[in-house]
Amino acid sequence: MKRSIGAKPFAYPAPAWVIGTYDAFGTPNAATVAWGGICCSNPPCVSISLREATYSYTNIMEKEAFTVNIPSEDHVKETDYCGMASGKNENKFETTGLTPVKSDLVYAPYIAEFPVVIECKLIHSFEIGLHTQFIGEIMDIKADESVIDENGVPDINKVRPLVFGPEARNYYGIGKNLGKAFSIGRELK
Q1: 30 - beta bridge partners?
Q2: Is the keyword DNA-binding assigned to this protein (predicted)?
Q3: Which residues contact 57 (CB under 8 A, 6 or more apart)?
Q4: pLDDT in tens, 31-69
């Protein structure tokens, strides 16, 4: 029997992404978000949701661009810090030792140390309630050579991305491979 736990903002897994933006002075900012995901395949798009009170909200609205930086397990402390501090008060790149790199496609920085970067131009924003959802069209994905597989795409086992458990407020690594998508289900036919 299932027990109702009420309407809460969590689903498994939530990403642990770090969003890169520039402020009005061209200073790079990094902010951790968990409310995000792929939202369209053609054109390829991601969505993220931010509160209006955040520094990144203003940066995205003004510059109409952002990057999604996918951290590996090696950068859990830096990822967490970017979600705790405000870019209004400090330069999080200086504090964490992460390196901002200017995208050549959108007006936003990406993080050199993170294995996968998604460069996005803002195409829509929607006020939902406490959060505004930003839809970014993916202009390019950059990945470290060390995480790219024989098919030319990032290998999740090499990327070792972080995921967030919103209910307990913990970060996790990925689990084991359970089977090939669009294939293992055929066993039921």
Answers
A1: 20
A2: no
A3: 50, 51, 132
A4: 999 999 999 999 999 999 999 999 999 999 999 999 999
The tokens of 78 are what?
């830096």
Alpha helices in the chain (DSSP H): 55-63, 76-84, 92-96, 156-159
Contact (CB, 8 A) for 165 and 152: no
Helix (H/G/I), strand (E/B), else coil: 146: helix
User: How would DSSP label each residue in 82-106?
Assistant: HHHS-TTT--HHHHH---EEE-SSS
Residue with tokens 């996005």: 120
CA distances from 103 to 28, 68, 130, 137, 141 (A): 11, 12, 30, 15, 11
Measured CA distances, 6 to 3, 10, 76, 158, 164 (Å): 9, 11, 30, 37, 20
pLDDT tens track for 124-145: 999 999 999 999 999 999 999 9
